[in-house]
Amino acid sequence: MKGLQKHIQLYxxxxxxxxxxxxxxxxxxxILPLGIVTGGTDGVATLSYYLYGIDPSIILMIxxxxxxxxxxxxxxxxxxxxxxxxxxxxxxxVKLTSGISNVIFIDTSDIFLIVIFAGLWSGIASGLMYKSxxxxxxxxxxxxxxxxxxxxxxxxxxxxxxxxxxxxxxIFFGINKALYAIILIYISNIxxxxxxxxxxxxxxxxxxxxxxxxxxxxxxxxxxxxxTTFEVKGGxxxxxxxxxxxxxxxxxxxxxxEGIRKLDPDAFFVATDSYQVEGAK
Length: 281
What we know:
It is built from eleven helices and four strands; from the N terminus they run αααααααααβαββαβ. The protein has helices at about 1-35, 40-50, 55-75, 75-95, 100-105, 110-130, 140-150, 155-175, 175-195, 210-220, 255-265, and strands spanning about 200-210, 230-235, 240-250, 270-275. Strands 2-3-1-4 form a four-stranded antiparallel β-sheet, with helices on one face. α3 (about 55-75) runs parallel beside α7, α6 (about 110-130) runs parallel beside α9 (about 175-195) and α7 packs across α8.
């Protein structure tokens, strides 16, 4: 079991490392040179670079430190720890790869083609990040704090934040650049789900466990999703068992699987694609 856990941990570290390098190279090679403000910390760093000439890695580090402090204050060390890896590693990798545009030349005259390619690249990098089970850090921690304090979902906070950043970019770089940013973000979000678990937006989990209370609390309090419990009868021994059913977004798949494994290594669960979810939340 320990050997398996080490293997899984190593796999996650490799995924997040590849993800961070892909994101940093994309930023320095295409996003920053084109002046596309895509939202998030990258968008703020791009704005600061073109308006004030500040090194993007410095802005990224400042935002990371600020976000980490806020998260530690309101969420505690345990819930912040998973975000700290990317939070502080990413600014260093951006700095490390800052000269890549001098080594690799890309013709950016066809900006629409570049934006499509950047969206695909960004989606793959972000998908690997989610697949590693780590958080992307920085603003994602702020969104979690907002949820805890004001019950505004992370998705809504992220959407509003990105809209403000992209809109600010349009003021300084023009509406065309903002439209390109929107296209890039849209393509990236599509690819993230494809990288994770196929073509469905949601996953349905059927879980049988001896730690029903603990796993139910994890799903409700940590992942903020509802759980339905019902009884089933085994076909071989015909013994009655309780099954939990929950529906989660595809990109949270690894958060749930890792949580189940941590709380009950002997739990039995099945995850299937869920193409349409309607009704009670």
